[in-house]
Amino acid sequence: MASKLHQLKAKAAQASQIMANQGNAYYKQLLEQNKQYIVNQPTVEACQELSKKLFYTRLASIPGRYESFWKELDGVKHIWRNRRELKVEDLGIAALFGLELYGWFCVGEIAGRGFTITGYYV
Questions:
Q1: Which of 23, 30, 70, 107 could form a disulfide with 19 if both were Cys (CB 3.0 to 4.6 A apart)?
Q2: Which InterPro entries does this one have (predicted)?
Q3: pTM of the model as a whole
C-alpha cells in the first residue's frame, strides 16, 4: 500500500511539473485560438449584457424545441401503432438504447455512491 501511495505521489509531482512547464503556453495558445469569444472590456455591465443575451436566446429557442419534441413524439406514436411491422434491427436498436439508459441512470447512480449498492459506505 505504501508503494502505491509513493507511486501516486510521484505521478502527481510529475503532472504538476509538466503543468508548471507547459501550462502557461497551453493557456496562451487556448486564448489565442478563442480570441473571437473574448470581450475586450470585461466589465460588470458587459457580463450582465452577455448573461441577458444568453438567457433570452435560450428563451427564444423554446418554440423550436417544443415543435421538435412534438414531432419526435408523433414519430414514436407512429412506430408504436405499427409495432407489428418492426424489423429485428429496429428492436435491437431499441434494446441497445434501453441498455444505455440503464447504464446512465442506474449504474451511474451506483458509481456516484462509491460503488455501494445500498448507499452506505462500509
A1: 23
A2: ATP_synth_F0_gsu_mt
A3: 0.46
